[in-house]
Amino acid sequence: VATADGTGTGTIKQGGFYRVSSTNNDHIVILPAAVPGTIVYLNSAAETSEAYELRTTSPSTISINGGSGSNAESAIATGTALVRCICIDSGKWIATQFANDGTESKVEAAA
Question: What's the pTM?
């Protein structure tokens, strides 16, 4: 469950497949430590009313799709069925998203 500050259930501990739900568009999911080769799948297909924010463990030094900064995050819209995050470097995540119809697109860069 995405949380107001990303702690607790909002923090992902390691790579794998996770179900995401959110009760507020501003709630946060934090990716695990940036270890190259780590892949995280975030399944939010069942979430039909709320979006969430995606953040790294260190937003100012670890980017999502090239974007970083103090408290930088990427918005994941309602209706996104799946987000795939791949750590390609100790300071970089690449993320794509899939709509419910299977259409794939990039996740917005963290800002």
Answer: 0.94
